[in-house]
TrEMBL record:
<comment type="similarity">
    <text>Belongs to the SURF1 family.</text>
</comment>
<dbReference type="Pfam" id="PF02104">
    <property type="entry name" value="SURF1"/>
</dbReference>
<keyword id="KW-1133">Transmembrane helix</keyword>
<keyword id="KW-0472">Membrane</keyword>
<keyword id="KW-1003">Cell membrane</keyword>
<keyword id="KW-0812">Transmembrane</keyword>
<feature type="transmembrane region" description="Helical">
    <location>
        <begin position="214"/>
        <end position="232"/>
    </location>
</feature>
<dbReference type="GO" id="GO:0005886">
    <property type="term" value="C:plasma membrane"/>
</dbReference>
<protein>
    <recommendedName>
        <fullName>SURF1-like protein</fullName>
    </recommendedName>
</protein>
<dbReference type="InterPro" id="IPR045214">
    <property type="entry name" value="Surf1/Surf4"/>
</dbReference>
<dbReference type="InterPro" id="IPR002994">
    <property type="entry name" value="Surf1/Shy1"/>
</dbReference>
Amino acid sequence: MKLRSVLVVLLVLAAASVCVRLGFWQLSRWHEKRALNRALARALAAPPRELGAKPHPEADVPGSRIEARGRYDESRQVLLGARPHMGEPGVEVVTPLLLEGGSSAVLVNRGWLYAADAATARPQESPEPGPQRVVGLAEPLGRGLAGPALRTVEHDSVTLYSARRLDWDTLSRRMPYALAPYVLRQTPGPGVPARPLRIYPRAANEAMHLSYTVQWFAFAAILLGGSSMLAWSRRGTSRGT
């Protein structure tokens, strides 16, 4: 076999190997997304775990459906910017819930509000005074995340913190009470106000990874099959001459 032919074979095998590896990687991503979606479905269907005056440990909560009771501290709220919904710009409103019978609080993502600039809104126009029963999914809070500092806005005796994401270390220094190391994303349900808009967590897109898996394996098959057919054709031609 000529050196040129050997190099072509090695190149085809290397390219096919890369395609196969990418196919298996997409397949593993599909399994991960499928497991996440199943865990989300189980959490939404499970009865909520009651949160007492002292929050559960961090490792015991993320992904769980939690019920918490207390009163919102609406004098301090966080606006998470750049949160579009159905093609509309907006923010998500995060408010501390002071837990009954204790000196601790848990952050509650109360949902989405329209914001033309995707950064500023007035959650004080959608108050939720008095005792509250909040049911939602617990999500871990980041710690020590890099990025811009919180932007503070004082308005109508309300301190609004504008941020792109939540960070426990940054927020805990600004709150006069202990914060749980997770946030509750409140889900829709009976008695839940229409504003801010509560939204169920989105399921991960499984089909995309499965489609990519098929594509990469198909590319590998085309490379191997096509090159084999081409080599066979050339071999037959050379024999006939």
